[in-house]
Amino acid sequence: MSVSPIAVTSQMESYLNESGSITVLKNLITELCIEKPEKPLPFMIEFLNRLLAAERKAKADAKAQEEDDAVFTIMEDDAPRVPCHRERRGAVSAEPLTEVVLPAARTIKNDEQQARLENALASCLLFQHLEPSERKEITRFMVPQTFKEGAVIIAQGDEEGENFYVVDEGVCDVYVAKDGVQNHVQRVEKGGTFGELALIYNTPRAATVKASTDVQVLVIGRSLYRRVLMSSTMRKREMYESFLDKVPILDTLQRYEKLTIADSLEPARFKDGEVIVRQGDLGDVFYIILEGGARVLQRNEDGEDTEVGRLKPSEYFGEIALLTNRPRAATVVAVGDIECVKLDRDRFIRVLGPCEEILRRNMEAYNRYIVNRI
Fold first, then answer.
1. Model confidence pTM above 0.90
2. Widest CA span of the chain, in angstroms?
3. Distance CA 32, CA 100 (A)
4. For residues 256 and 107, which has the higher predicted lDDT (pLDDT)?
5. What's the rounded mean pLDDT across residues 165-173?
6. Distance, CA of 181 to chain centre
7. What are phi and psi of 114, to 5 degrees?
């Protein structure tokens, strides 16, 4: 019995839709129309390989997440648990964050004390990945403690230690016991720090610290430290999400996907007059302005740059760079020192994977949108 051409066509269409092939083909055609490569075949192969790699990574991440969920349990007291010593993957989490309640800031510090605290945290390896605003927030919750000369502040082997200390006045000495002998290994003076590992690890103290003079230290504990950072993370995440809601090409993303992008944004700072993006350059970075402003310039046929607009806090530019290496349509120059957050195309693809293709599904609207974007 022969099969009618209509039935064959129907079967083909059904297969293309059910397998997702039709979406891939539409995305590929959209990419070709946007980029217009001189050699389409290598371009198409590279596109499909990139899509395949993203799909494989998404599956691997999902499998690793299932393993993590089976092994790691988050305790209410935030005490670290390390039941498995394999290296955690570098995936970005977009899980919902619950409200964090912080106590009132404990102490009011004078300008000199505040500057000393912030410098101490900035020089401590544990805090160097934090933004200055986050370090300043931590200092607000550090409380003073005093110790008389000769007092033991922390003792080697103590399993209850959870505090981090900054020396505000006086001198401390650090000793490590070996073969029953107390060996002097370090002196900590005004502005120095000790005990930082207690903020991340619930392990016995590795050394003894004694007050060599009357000492005042400023202290924060592990639980409060984590609550402060969590609160800061929540505020930033909500602010970034509100900014991303204004970006039209991200409209098709779900909230959890936008939160994933928000968690992936990196800080970027520029000095007055610094060129952030230049017209004609290939771009791969998207920016949101947090503080400060920028001028938008376009070069006319005579080669002269004309200001066509100004950007202010919460405004963005370069979003088309997340999807294509189309040359920049304008130059953006910092006006005063400005603070931004940024996301490059590689990270965007890595954290969202195939979702990159979702943004292309309305080809007409997409092409209409990108005509005059930076």
1. no
2. 101
3. 47
4. 256
5. 94
6. 45
7. -65, -45
